[in-house]
Fold this protein.
Amino acid sequence: MTTTIRTHILGYPRIGARRELKFALESHWRGERSAAELEATARDLRAANWAEQAKAGLDFVTVGDFSLYDHVLDHIQLLGCEPARFAFRDDEPELARYFAMARGAVHCCGGHGQALEMTKWFDTNYHYLVPEFTPDTSFRLASQRLFAQVEEARRLGHRIKVVLLGPLTFLWLGKEKAADFSRLELIGRLLPVYGQILAQLSQLGVEWVQLDEPILATELAPAWQAAFEPAYATLASAGPKLLLASYFAPMAENARLACQLPVHGLHVDGVRGAADLPAVLDWLPAHKVLSVGIVNGRNVWRTDLDAAFGRLRPAVERRRELWLAPSCSLLHVPVSLAGETTLDAELRGWLAFAQEKLDELQTLKRALRGESIDWSDARRQVEARRASPRVHRPEVGARLAALGEEAGWRASPHAVRRAAQRAHLKLPLLPTTTIGSFPQTPAVRQARAAWRRGELTEAAYRATMEAEIAHAIRVQETLGLDVLVHGEPERNDMVEYFAEHLTGFAVTQHGWVQSYGSRCVKPPLLYGDVARPTPITLHWARHAQGLTTKPVKGMLTGPVTLFQWSFVRDDLPQATVLLQLALAMRDEVEDLERAGITIIQIDEPALREGLPLRPAARADYLAAATRAFRLCAAGVADATQIHTHMCYAEFADILPAIIALDADVLTIEASRSGMESVRAFAEAGYPNELGPGVFDVHSPHVPATEDMVRLLEYAATLFAPERLWVNPDCGLKTRSWEEVEPALAHMVAAARTLRARLG
Ligand SMILES: CN1c2c(nc(N)[nH]c2=O)NC[C@@H]1CNc1ccc(C(=O)N[C@@H](CCC(=O)N[C@@H](CCC(=O)N[C@@H](CCC(=O)O)C(=O)O)C(=O)O)C(=O)O)cc1
Ligand SMILES: N[C@@H](CCS)C(=O)O
Ligand SMILES: [Zn+2]
């Protein structure tokens, strides 16, 4: 049998190789760039992305993956289910409504304009905006944006495949805003709109539509599983051929269902969902297209083409039509290696970003078609990484091997530590604090940029950061906060900064990946054994503590978050890498304590995000993650208070693991959901101290004292007030001082009001 082999991608990064979208968005929001100018930048970016795909020789370019802010938000508009609470006027432009839902309704007319909740996209560091559903939610085809993009791509002469979120995943991603109702009940109202969209795409001549249903890679409740067959039976006749796509984990028990649905093709994640492949080869009917996500869309290492070729051979032998693709959308990797001029040649040779991954697909396609392709250079690079001495540091392994079990446990239980900490810190009831970062002002960022370019000396840069810290301390003292922070001005990012100072990591110049909206991060490359050659934060913490008699919290990023927000090595078990990171950061914890910093926060906002989508893998992950955190924290005396912080995630299903961290104080994001999570912590009997966030840090809106008093009063009915702290949801780096100062003043006033009531 001759197999037809094609190549495609599930999606491409949207921000542009030089973050063009970020700058266009932010200047539009500042009022410096019109909507038309923003749309023009977006059009250029789409055209450039399609041109890359065409140039690489892909058989389709993908349309519908671009988004001005978030693809789930795009679907909210496409499907006409903007929450009624925004009370948009009929004549309000689509784009203004779009940004009002994303960022809060600065301009909104009388409606309740708080931004949509934001949460993690499956187990990634990308955040999507959460659709809101009630029994009254209706749907209609309400935006022509997608169709305009199809025409745009057509005019440019491309062969097109369109991508949409599948209807079940779209509902699943949302949140019910009414009691006694399941959003799955809305499927009957939603499907006709999908039908209309598919019909319109068909009229535009679109042959293939990829419907993303990544919930197939999760454990589905029976009702959700049962909803797939009738839903896809409805869509089957709508027009274009459908490629159902699952990614991020094995479909496992959902694999047979996916193979049997009435669609024309199935995309399988050939990296994280590789375990599905043998069964899918057996179960997927012969006439259907199989798309194998053979190139890793979640990591940046060059593909081992020999291994990939070997894994694809059985599929070639058994399929009539085989498509090759990255495992998932390339949204999660940087755009291109082309701009990386400072990475050393050896490391560079080990990497493939989005653009390079397109070429890998083509190479594999040609080889599978029987062309004689020489990839000996690629093979050499893969082998070089495996054998490179810079990856392996014997002393790191030796230190791990010598670790005793006791290293992971604090000397005394929390109750004993708590007494020692109270005696030492003498904090009031409901102590106030912040999560660590203060505004990263343009001046701070520019100073860092100038220092990096060599235009500012090391001494001048230090002095600038020290002045920034002094300012932050003065502001906090004036506001009357109880536990101060230095404000993290010296950090470009809470992960990248540490990566710059640890062995085993490299950082990129332009390896940006979208985190949410216009905000991006540059995940470091964790390629080798990790150690901490010299103290990292000590100087800044000492400087800050020297300026005040109030306690200053030391501020560190924990091992799990360092792992989760980096591109990590694939040649060691996760548990081992976590322990390496934990030991390196433990050295920092101990140095801070020795320097008299007796409150130390070890941030773990990515702990929940790292939870495997598949239940079978969860216990091992949680055991490794909690062990790493405890190892990092446990070297300090009873009187030293360890804090941790988590945000933008569902904590309810990992509460036992959070308790097992045994941090003395946990601060969490809680305000957007009205303290829902405090109830969960209370019900789980959370034994230590808790700081539920009382205001949203993503909104420019200054929170009112009364609102925070209300939230705190409510929290105090759920959780023992003597174990409650008062803090914002997360760090304040994205805000301005003009917003932060009144917000914190109101927060301190709220804490004092409640102290008086309770005291
Ligand atoms: C807490 N969060 C984080 C996540 N992941 C991380 N890796 N880090 C996080 O903090 N995931 C969950 C959440 C996501 N939240 C955010 C919040 C804010 C940002 C953000 O603000 N990102 C910045 C980039 C930050 C950075 O690295 N800055 C560098 C370089 C800045 C820069 O662009 N410099 C200019 C020159 C300076 C100038 O003129 O302004 C340049 O290079 O051109 C730095 O400070 O040095 C963003 O802008 O998107 C991300 C995730
Ligand atoms: N300390 C960090 C935590 C963010 S999750 C900050 O305040 O930005
Ligand atoms: Zn946070």
Observations:
- The first helix runs from residue 20 to 29.
- The mean pLDDT is 96.
